[in-house]
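dumping this here before i forget
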Amino acid sequence: MDMPEVIPVCYCGNPTKLNMTWSNDNPGRRFFGCKKFGSGFRKPYWFFTWFDPPLTPSS
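structure:
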C-alpha cells in the first residue's frame, strides 16, 4: 500500500486523515478527509480529496 509523501491540511488548519470508503461506487478507495468530520464540525470547512485514482470497471 503506497503511503502519501505529503499529508494535506484541511481548511480548518488541521492535518487530514487517510480514510477508506466502502461505498458501492468506490469500494476500498482511499481519500483524505478532515479529522473533525462527523464531530459536528461545520461542513464548509471540511476538506476532501481522493488519494487513490478512480476505479476501473472489472471485466
